[in-house]
């Protein structure tokens, strides 16, 4: 038995998950009781208006005395619901354990044992993602942008199920962002992180294209420089376009030929108008890029992310 206080968290996000609660709790309880000196189970009820008491009334009293239910007053996204549970967790280690693994409660012990190898965050890694074909390209573009335009180390096959040490959780809770993408926040926090492979694939969430696309834009705008980079390239392309248009207009005016060698007849005022429009187009793109820099700086200041996170202090 480990002399450790463990907090176990899960979010009840649908009526089907609520119906699974008795089997879920009766599965994880023997592992917690046998291997940890103290433990608590925190369920976040993300089903406003639905009480979980009826689903849990036949549970043994031994389980109920370690159980805490957080009833949210209004439905929120799953990441925010997880934060509600993490705020309440008091354990030396906190584990988010999803319903996908309720028939494999031994994974709790596997995750904890991995932390004894000096890891602060250990997550379950899927071999594949099960999603509808029309969404595969969206996931591919999303994760390629995250890798290229940020310093975040994000595993696109990572399950939400993971164990977090107390010191890593304290640092994570300092990041009080309203627009949360938990995989990115885990990466910002840092600490020694590893994974345990599992055969359980990541199941596609029951959300439409609009919700997924909106969540992707939130994550990209919050954690990458992609949009600023796009505006920079628009400015560079507009500047090159300006140069080409000016050269073409001057060549038509003075030589009677365009850049492709086609004969053209110069119209009075045409050269001046084309050059003037191209200059203003380039200036507009430059202003947009400059404004994006200012907005990004303001955005990052408002978030108040910690400037640094100290993992440990050593004395020699």
Task: Please characterize this protein's 3D structure.
- The chain has two domains: 2-205, Spore Coat Polysaccharide Biosynthesis Protein SpsA, Chain A, CATH 3.90.550.10; 226-303.
- Helix content is 51%, strand content 17%.
- The longest helix is centred in the C-terminal third of the chain and has 34 residues, at 270-303.
- The protein is elongated and about 95 Å long.
- With 316 residues, the chain is of the alpha/beta class.
- The protein contains eleven helices and nine strands.
- Residues 307-316 have low confidence and may be disordered.
Q: Could you give the topology of this structure?
A:
Blueprint: E1 2-12, H1 15-35, E2 36-45, H2 53-56, H3 61-64, E3 67-71, H4 78-88, E4 93-96, H5 106-115, E5 121-126, E6 129-130, H6 133-148, E7 158-165, H7 166-173, H8 182-189, E8 193-198, E9 202-203, H9 209-223, H10 226-255, H11 270-303
Parallel strand pairs: 1-2, 1-4, 2-3, 5-8, 6-9
Antiparallel strand pairs: 4-7, 5-7
Helix pairs in contact: 6-9, 10-11
Quaternary organization:
single chain
CATH superfamily of the largest domain: Spore Coat Polysaccharide Biosynthesis Protein SpsA, Chain A
- The total strand number stands at 9
- Please give the domain count: 2
In short:
The protein is α/β, with parallel strands linked by helices and 316 residues long.
What key phrases describe this protein's structure?
single chain, 316 residues, alpha/beta, Spore Coat Polysaccharide Biosynthesis Protein SpsA, Chain A, 7-stranded mixed β-sheet, 9 strands
């Amino acid at each position: 038995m480990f002399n450790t206080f463990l907090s176990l968290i899960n979010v009840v996000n649908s009526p089907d998950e609520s119906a699974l609660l008795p089997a879920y709790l009766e599965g994880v309880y023997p592992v917690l009781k046998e291997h940890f000196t103290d433990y608590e189970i925190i369920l976040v009820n993300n089903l406003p208006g639905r009480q979980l008491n009826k689903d849990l009334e036949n549970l043994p009293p031994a389980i109920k005395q370690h159980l805490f239910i957080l009833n949210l007053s209004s439905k929120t996204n799953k990441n925010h619901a997880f934060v509600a549970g993490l705020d309440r967790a008091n354990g030396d280690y906190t584990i988010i354990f999803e319903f996908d693994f309720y028939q494999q409660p031994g994974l709790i012990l596997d995750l904890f044992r991995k932390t004894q190898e000096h890891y602060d965050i250990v997550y379950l890694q899927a071999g594949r993602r099960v999603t509808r074909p029309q969404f595969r390209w969206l996931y591919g573009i999303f994760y390629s942008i995250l890798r290229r335009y940020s310093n975040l180390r994000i595993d696109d096959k990572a399950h939400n199920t993971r164990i977090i040490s107390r010191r890593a959780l304290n640092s994570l809770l300092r990041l009080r962002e309203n627009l949360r993408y938990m995989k990115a926040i885990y990466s910002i926090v840092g600490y020694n992180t590893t994974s345990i492979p599992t055969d359980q694939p990541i199941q596609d969430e029951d959300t439409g294209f609009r919700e997924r696309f909106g969540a992707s834009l939130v994550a990209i705008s919050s954690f990458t420089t992609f949009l600023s980079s796009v505006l920079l390239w628009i400015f560079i392309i507009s500047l090159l376009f300006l140069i080409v248009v000016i050269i073409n207009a001057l060549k038509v005016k003075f030589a009677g030929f365009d850049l492709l060698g086609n004969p053209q007849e110069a119209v009075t005022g045409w050269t001046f108008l084309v050059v003037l429009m191209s200059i203003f187009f380039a200036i507009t793109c430059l202003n947009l890029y400059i404004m994006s820099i200012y907005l990004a700086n303001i955005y990052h200041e408002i978030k108040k992310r910690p400037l640094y996170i100290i993992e440990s202090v050593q004395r020699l």
